[in-house]
Amino acid sequence: MRDLFDRILENKGPLGKWASQAEGYFVFPKLEGPISNRMKFQGKEVITWSINDYLGLANLPEVKKVDGETAAEYGLAYPMGARMMSGHTDFHEQLEQELAAFVNKESAYLLNFGYQGMVSAIDALVSKDDIIVYDVDAHACIIDGVRLHMGKRFTFKHNDIESLEKNLERATKMAEQTGGGILVISEGVFGMRGEQGKLREIVALKKKYTFRLFVDDAHGFGTLGATGAGTGEEQDVQDDIDVYFATFAKSMAGIGAFLAADKEIIDYLKYNLRSQMFAKSLPMIYVKGALKRLDMLRTMPELKAKLWENVNALQNGLKNKGFDIGNTNTCVTPVYLNGSIPEAMALVKDLRENYGIFCSIVVYPVIPKGLILLRMIPTATHTMQDIEETLEAFSAIRDRLENGTYKRLSAAVAAAMGE
Question: In 3-state terms, what secondary structure has residue 173?
Answer without folding.
Answer: helix
